[in-house]
Design a protein that fits this description.
The structure is a single chain. The chain has 140 residues and is α+β, with helices and mostly antiparallel strands. The protein has two domains: 65 residues; 57 residues, no CATH class. It is 40% helix and 26% strand. The protein is built from two helices and six strands. The longest helix has 29 residues. The radius of gyration is 20 Å and the shape is elongated. Keywords: Membrane, Transmembrane, Transmembrane helix. InterPro entries: RseC, SigmaE_reg_RseC_MucC. It holds the Pfam family RseC_MucC. It comes from bioreactor metagenome. This is Protein RseC.
Length: 140
Amino acid sequence: MENVNGHVGLVVGLNGNMAQIHFLRGKQCANCGACLTAGDNEMEIALPNSLGVKIGDRVVVDLSPKRVVQASLLAYAVPLAFLIAGVFLGGLVSDWFGLVLGVVACGLAYGILRLVDRRNQKRHSFQPRMERILEDGEEA
């Protein structure tokens, strides 16, 4: 149930403005963790019902690997860069100061990322998106 542009899923439930979408897992899903797994080959994800879907509708969902990579870079590379910069700059004063400044800088990076995450949650920047509803018999 996947194609080049997205995954085809089946709407299995509605809860307020959220739609529960069921997929068959693709190879690229191996360790992503963005969805709830419903079995070895299946997964489910809850998305905002931006298209007004109904139970039983088939939808194309963008599960872009690009956004997963961007989120991973933010989560790992930014704090690491702050840590290294803090250790280097603090090390100019003393080894202990470098250690302390590195840890403080890393904590600061996570604080900044927390603020960015809150903003992105409101904008759904890294969240998968429903692209369109498939008509009966239509292939994605």
